[in-house]
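re: ur question from yesterday

yeah so i grabbed the chain u mentioned. its 391 aa long if i counted rite. heres the sequnce exactly as i have it in my notes:
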Amino acid sequence: MKVSRRTLLKLTGFGFAATIMLPRMAFAARNSLKSLRTGVQPGNKTRLVVEMAARPSYTLSYPNNQLVINIANTAANKSLTPKLAAGTLVKSISQTQVGDRLQITANLNKPISQIPKSQIMMLEPNGDNDYRLVLDFSAGASVAAGAGAATTAKNTVPAKTTTTPAKKYVVVIDAGHGGKDPGCIGKGGTREKDIVLSVAKKLRVKLDANGFKTYLTRGDDTYLKLSERAAIAERRKADLFLSLHANANPSRAMKGFSIYTLSEKASDEEARKLAESENASDKIGLDDWTGFEKDIRFALSSLQQHAVAEMSEEYANSCARTFRGAKIEQQPGPGVRHAPFAVLRSTVPGALLELGHLSNGAEEKLLRTGAHQDKLVNAIVRSVKNYNFEV
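ran it thru and got these structure tokens back, copy pasting raw so excuse formatting
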């Protein structure tokens, strides 16, 4: 396993005494524990998040009123204090070093059943977080196989069954730009604001037909501030927020979709520049720029921020896979990137979807066609139906 410089620095930071007492652990351990936190999810579920510097190899077991996570090649981090939210099943969390294996024990208020694979997620790093093992569970009967029965969890995001929702989940679709802000303009004169509005309207019809309750931030050529767009999602009590855009690049050869989630730190230079460009759209209306800055600072706790980020990333990764599965070309590089987009600053999980590049002549023509817009809409609908709204 390749070890990053940052991980090496953390692994060798035990100090001289630790090196003398635990030489094998100090040199053999290749992963490190970053954080432990819990939260409450819809359906009265408890969420336990284990954040690691590298992708963990782990097993789960279920002794009486406990959830035990064994992680290979990992050192305990005794200086770490778990962040425990009120109202969860977790009373306390402890760490035990067993050779080069870390054992994390969550002491529970009530017993739980074996966690199904659909409630286990492995999230990739984003701008603010490293790898996260996310476990969602609720109170239930003990494992039938007996206390201590172990299950090896595969380190992949589980497949989800595509179904029509039993309840009407609320999706807010934001057609980027509008009014005095045309967005980017292709060589053939295609305006971003027109393309994304057309896709947004089609998407609303298709999502409503699939059992969702869908709202548009704008249904015509209207200019909205970024804070107003985010506020609409809050006001509608949205379960998911999708901001639609079309990209531009100095290189006319660049093409393909890309998907972004909110992060205070951009995942790369291109993501940083794009966020600056999108955020600058509000500067068209300079009359209330300072007020906007204040409005977008939602009073979120650290745990809420992490929960929203995790749910947003889960959707974004699933959406990128759905686009690729539909044979929609992806921009070179990662399918999901991260940057401080003002429009995504809210308590609602969401993503910003760049549907393609208007700066590319061929893709500009493609984005104008009804057939390609329908292809994009169908892929987004599948990604929304695949999203697990209950975790």
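noticed a couple things. The longest strand covers residues 31-41. also The chain has a mean pLDDT of 80.
anyway ttyl
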